[in-house]
Amino acid sequence: MKYKRILLKLSGESLLGKKGFGIDPNMLKLYASEIKKVVNLGVQVSVVIGGGNIFRGEDAAGAGIERATGDHMGMLATLINAMAIQGACENEGLYTRLMSALKIDEVCEPFIRRRAIRHMEKGRVVIFGAGIGRPFFTTDSAASLRAIEIDADVVLKGTRVDGIYTSDPEKNPDATRFKSISFDEVYKMGLNVMDMTAFTLCKENDLPIIVFDMNKPDNLLKLIQGEEIGTLVTV
User: Fold this and answer.
1) Are the C-beta atoms of 5 and 151 separated by less than 8 Å?
2) Do residues 150 and 116 make contact, with C-beta atoms less than 8 angstroms apart?
3) What is the rounded CA–CA span in Å between residue 169 and residue 30?
């Protein structure tokens, strides 16, 4: 195996599937089954998921809600998704723990770094919810920070495209995909991988990022086994 401990970053929108809002059960089952494949290999897995399928904090201004309040609403949306992922993983027979940056004792544990690592060492899938518990930070930033804190080998950003392209492949059919690219090249070319805070955290801590298509069965498994799936971003 190429990676022993991973952090998988999923967007909230990835749970939409064919629905216009909320959670598509088929997407939950797909992601849980893909996670199970790598857990069965002995890989230690953690997950961060966004909340954009339910509410985006940055959209709050349009409703007359101040940004800080909107961001907290978005954190709660991520917890709904995290609970859904947890339930789907447990339906696959996996052991899980949901850890939150906000204190909600009835449904999840508070985030404690050493406890999170211990859960993973015991083979439990650890799902991190509520971002970092502070407004003005995205779930990309939460993914980068948590990955650094738990000493993950890599951040795996699961998307609906198969990597990083020279331009948006859904708009430009002539766009070409990078097999690998450096952090500095991403900066210079203005490519959209993660928000700048999250991206810089990974760069400064020499933490590689792989952007790949999570919706293609076995992609996560192949990536863990060392196949060149998606685009690798390194120093």
Assistant:
1) yes
2) yes
3) 24
pLDDT in tens, 92-110: 999 999 999 999 999 999 9
Q: Which amino acid is at 16?
A: L
Tokens of 62: 């349009």
CA distance 139 to 147: 12
Range of the domain at 200: 5-234
The model's pTM is: 0.95
Domain count along the chain = 1
The token pair that represents 101 in the structure block: 């940056």
Instruction: Give tens-digit pLDDT for 200-226.
Output: 999 999 999 999 999 999 999 999 999
Backbone dihedral angles phi then psi of residue 87, each to the nearest 5 degrees: -60, -40
Q: CATH number for the domain including 125?
A: 3.40.1160.10
The most distant pair of C-alpha atoms in the chain lies apart, rounded to whole Å, by 50
Whether residue 74 contacts residue 164, with contact meaning beta carbons closer than 8 Å, is answered with no
